[in-house]
Design a protein that fits this description.
By secondary structure, this protein is an alpha/beta fold. The chain is about 35% helix and about 20% strand. Zinc ion (ZN) binds next to loops.
Length: about 325
């Protein structure tokens, strides 16, 4: 089922989707995608520059995308979307709790957004927390809650000054102009035996097979690279990680959002969904949940959670051990 990525990187990119519009926020830039038939890695073609990606966020998108949900919006729908983010942060913590160190170990989240996940860690007793996000407006509230914060554009280098036990990249790498450069930088800022925990869409998922250009993982024009388990293993091995585990968390949100993209993509005149989400998509969640459960049980979930573990303190170079998939 999992394709071998032996011999990649990518001798022949093949056209996949032409001019996919922004179904969620109605930005003007459409994105085309190509795919490597050998390892199933997808990338935008042409690959947008860091400047284009920055302009996409700064000029093209409503403020509600950057801050996720405006905290001063009292509407029931805004509160429901914000609550969903909190629930997602809680689910993420439940998924990765067994990988986390003792409460004093330093943990970094890149692309921390409004800090839902870091606040969950704080509430669970973790004390040495650091968030990085390009949106400087998020800093004061996080610092007030005892969480260190650095504002930077990850496509222009990562100003890390110390090492971490765990670095979390929660749906981040698919947004980057050069994800491998950021992963390399992360690898260099882990303590011996430290780990990267990475959530990202899975290009080899059942949801992608079903929804094709409407698959939420494409998130045109913001997503640059969409990995498969095979392509991600190949990239992680090249970075020298000792151990690579990939699992598939249940992701009903991907199915609901893909269905929303399908519906909105067939409407001729429709307003951009507020916060990128239509209320009916939230209502779909219970109905698509069994589909999401089934695809993740089959090892072909819409999202994958990769755990990349660096060499331990002894520097022993054990052979890379792949697990689960
Ligand atoms: Zn490839």
């Amino acid at each position: 089922m999992v394709k071998a990525a032996e011999g990649c990187p990518h001798p022949a990119w093949t056209p996949l989707y032409d001019a996919v519009p922004d179904y969620e926020h109605r930005a003007s830039r459409a994105a085309s995608f190509v795919q490597c038939p050998r390892c199933e890695l997808i990338r935008q073609e042409p690959l947008p520059s860091a400047d284009t990606l920055r302009d996409d966020y700064d000029a093209e998108y409503p403020a509600d995308y950057r801050a996720h949900v405006a905290s001063d919006d009292p509407s029931l729908f805004a509160r429901a979307v914000a609550r969903l983010k909190e629930v997602q942060a809680g689910l993420l913590l439940a998924k990765i709790r067994r990988f986390l160190p003792d409460h004093g170990a330093p943990i970094l989240e890149l692309g921390c957004g409004a800090g839902h996940f870091l606040r969950r860690l704080r509430a669970a007793g973790f004390s040495d927390l650091h968030g990085v996000d390009r949106n400087a407006e998020l800093g004061p509230a996080l610092r007030k809650d005892g969480i260190a914060f650095t504002s930077c554009d990850l496509d222009r280098g990562l100003p890390l000054e110390r090492r971490y036990h765990t670095i979390v990249l929660n749906y981040l790498i698919e947004h980057l102009a050069d994800p491998e450069a950021v992963l390399r930088e992360c690898a260099e800022h882990l303590v011996p035996g430290g780990q990267l925990l990475i959530l990202t869409p899975n290009s080899a998922s059942v949801a992608h097979r079903v929804w094709k250009r409407f698959w939420s993982g494409l998130h045109a024009p913001r997503h640059t690279f969409l990995h498969s388990p095979a392509s991600f293993r190949s990239a992680a091995r090249a970075l020298g990680f000792e151990r690579i585990d990939i699992t598939f968390p249940t992701d009903p949100g991907s199915w609901a959002l893909s269905a929303q993209n399908f519906v909105e993509g067939h409407r001729t005149r429709a307003a951009a969904p507020r916060y990128g989400t239509k209320p009916y998509a939230l209502g779909l969640l219970p109905f698509v949940y069994p589909l999401a459960l089934a695809e993740s049980a089959a090892g072909r979930g819409s999202s994958m959670l990769a755990r990349l573990v660096a060499r331990g303190a002894g520097g022993a170079s054990k052979p890379a051990r792949d697990a689960i998939v």
